[in-house]
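Hey, I was hoping to borrow your eyes for a little while. I'm sending you its amino acid sequence along with the backbone structure tokens. Take your time with it, there's no hurry, and the full record follows here.
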Amino acid sequence: MKKQPTRWVLLATTLALPVLLVVCAHRTLRESQGLRQGDELPKARLRTAEGFPVDTDSWRGTMTLLVLFNPACKACEAEILTLKTIAPQFPDLKIVLLSLDPAVAQADIPFPVLIDPSRALLKKARRLAVPALYWIGHDGKVQYARTGQRPPAEEALLFRKLQAKGD
């Protein structure tokens, strides 16, 4: 008679394990998506390469494009070139790069490059791929988020739509 409860426990465990794995995988995937549309930009104290502090709260009231990038990433280099090309079309847009590498050199990058020493913002904004772009509206909320690089014309069209939506 003692073997009967053991069988039920084994059967219940066997049946519950796949469900538990699916729930854990879903949670991990959801967390890896980072900031999503409608999320509030987390408060964080970043710093410039020169060591000057920059608070994300200071971006409120302006449209800001936050770009997570890795200096060794070819797609990130291409995205920065795209942004360099189309930035003059959007003079009211503040473009800020957040480096995944704290030892980044700022050579040939025409935008402010920030570092997150506490990694608070990087943990919240994490993505499985870079570059990761976050369009932050006047209200400090994420209006658009994506990963990957786009051609300049496509990027400019998207930015015009986002700008019109934010005005």
In short: The mean pLDDT is 84. The two ends are 73 Å apart (CA to CA). Helices lie at 3-32, 74-86, 120-125, 152-166.
